[in-house]
Amino acid sequence: MGSDICTNYEVCRLVVAEDYEIEQDKKVAYIKNYCTAGISKWTACKRYITKSELNFCPDFVRPDTALSPGEIVDKFDEDKSLQ
Ligand code: SF4
């Protein structure tokens, strides 16, 4: 079923970027628990929500990041090391 897998799966840096900084076991867990876990899960992913609202998603945002998209953009703007 197509909706099992996130519509961002093939472009999401967490999934596809070799330079995305994350431990391999965490990446595997996120993919299992969010990216491929069905539409109710991947639409709850903060990376999915952030990309939907802002049209981009900084690398520091994880599926279970507690910040709102507004707080994420503030953090991104304030910390030049993230850009
Ligand atoms: S991390 Fe989130 S936005 Fe990226 S593919 Fe997985 S569910 Fe989709």
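^ iron/sulfur cluster complex. Residues 2-82 form one domain. The chain has one domain: 2-82.
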